[in-house]
Amino acid sequence: MKRIFLPVFIYFIFAGCLSGNDTLRLVFIGDIMQHMPQINAAKMPDGTYNYDSCFSFVADEIKYADFRVANLELTLSGTPYSGYPCFSAPNELAETLKKTGINLLATANNHSCDRGSKGIIRTLDVLDKFGIYHVGTYRNISEKTFSYPQIIDMKGIRVAFLSYTYGTNGILVAYPNIVNLIDTAEIANDIKLAKKYKPDIIICVIHWGMEYQLKQNDEQKMLAQFMTSRGINLITGSHPHVVQPMETQTDSAGNIKSAVVYSLGNAVSNQNYEHTDIGAIAHVAVVKNDTATRIVDCKYSLILRHRPVEKGKTKFYIIPAGKFYGNRQIFTETEYVSLRKTLENTRKRLNTYNKNFDEKRY
Questions:
Q1: What is the domain extent for residue 68?
Q2: Which CATH number characterizes residue 183's domain?
Q3: What percentage of the chain carries pLDDT values higher than 70?
Q4: Which residues neighbour 177 within 8 Å (Cβ) at sequence distance 6 or greater?
């Protein structure tokens, strides 16, 4: 996979050589957050940090895909590390995300400017160091011009990634840095720009909606319709910190035209509001043959946050729903009952409101 800048005529030479079916499997996870208890949990006796255990249960569910995307709702600004309201997490978090299989991180969200210009630049520096693609924030206009939209070629399928946020918590973006903000005129122009690269599919990772609301609001629905009507094939949302419904739109033949995940919820956090201890993973399959490229399958799986106390210190784990019941012995009875209730309620809600977006069973 690579970021490419090919003249149009070269693209058609390569496109003409494609034959048969190519299937690209994509995975999207939600908000990766780092409150101080999480940072403290990752601290080792020698003063370094290690996040491997946090992702150990979920790694297999992520790595099976060809490409994996998440929302990085924090900065990697260096010391002093801090949680809410101005996040700065250790570099080792990015290292573990790379090992877990995350290929691309959306960096446009309301915490992009938590540590000012230094935070924006250093976050991108760290992600570059570990070879993780990023989309949504930029050091300057030259970098954005060169690398946006983020174009990735995988298995003969070309994907264009866009990303936006509703705001940055009132913190002004310092010149010459750039944070992509939701603006319909800009989004329309970016879609036109993306189409010049002849992508097979356009994906938008967007930070929108209202925190802790279990259903999408009218603004989200209108914006989703605006984007899909102009050619965006898949939208994955973040910011509410809870899982919101998912839907697909189909043509008269039943083929998927577009898909929207209004909110994937938290991948991992220390939030204690109701429903913030569960998140979703979106599993999307794209098939390309001699005549067309289509999204052919959209499913979701659920993940739960497990916070045991080990050796006097709270630890954090992401537990896939598929492994929840089989690992009952790792939970206290109180936590198990609480997580089971959350899991069952979330499944019931999504079964009611999702449209052609079913749970992936293992």
A1: 8-12+21-359
A2: 3.60.21.10
A3: 94
A4: 117, 120, 121, 137, 138, 139, 140
